[in-house]
Structure formats: C-alpha cells, structure tokens
Amino acid sequence: MVIKSKIKGKKAHKNKPTSKKYTKYKIEGDKIIRERSCPRCGPGVFLSKGQGRFYCGKCHFTEFKAISAKKE
Ligand SMILES: [Zn+2]
C-alpha cells in the first residue's frame, strides 16, 4: 500500500487536551479550596466561567452571577 503525502478530507489526528481539573483545586493549610461545582452533577464537576456566568459542560447548567458589584 502506497501512502500518499497528501490526504484530502482527513485531518491529522491530534490528542485531546487533558482535563485540567487539578487546576480547580488548591490546598491551603488543611483546607481544600475548590472552584464552583455543579449543583446538578455534584462535586467534581466544575463550572466554567464565561460572559458573567458559570456553565457546566456536562449537563449544560448555567448559573448567572447574582453579585455584579464584585468588580475590582
Ligand atoms: Zn452539571
């Protein structure tokens, strides 16, 4: 089988970026500080911040920020 250098219609396979869940955890002393987690999916599923709201990528839960005066 001859492998052509130009393959049309097929993209080169790229590995998915790994989950960066560990960035959501911070340990301060004895406490574990976690980011906002999804109320529907439970702890472990974090909400992503964007456009002034939190969004769950798993169940598509969206939580709007109630406090808008938190800008410094
Ligand atoms: Zn969720």
Put the structure in a nutshell.
By secondary structure, the chain is mostly beta strands. The protein contains no helices and six strands. It has a domain at 39-64.
What layout of secondary structure does this protein have?
Elements: E1 25-28, E2 31-34, E3 37-38, E4 42-50, E5 53-56, E6 62-64
Antiparallel strand pairs: 1-2, 3-4, 4-5, 5-6
The chain binds zinc ion.
Describe this entry's structure for a reader.
With 72 residues, the chain is mostly beta strands. It has a domain at 39-64. 0% of the residues lie in helices and 36% in strands. The protein has no helices and six strands. The strands form two sheets. It has a four-stranded antiparallel beta sheet, with no helix packed on it. A hairpin with a 2-residue loop joins β1 (25-28) and β2. The N and C termini lie far apart (63 Å). Bound molecules: zinc ion. Residues 38, 40-41, 45, 56, 58-59, 61 line the site of zinc ion. Zinc ion binds at residues 38, 40-41, 45, 56, 58-59, 61.
Uncertain ranges: none
Question: Mean pLDDT, nearest integer?
Answer: 82
Q: Total number of helical segments?
A: 0
* Quantity of strands, as a count: 6
Following the backbone from N to C, one meets helices and strands in this order, namely EEEEEE
Bound molecules: zinc ion
**Largest sheet report:** 4 strands, antiparallel
Radius of gyration: 20 Å
Backbone shape: elongated
Compute the separation of the termini in Å.
Answer: 63 Å
Instruction: Note the beta-strand portion.
Output: 35-45%
Give the structural class.
mainly beta
> How helical, in percent, are the residues?
under 10%
Largest sheet: spatial strand order: 3-4-5-6
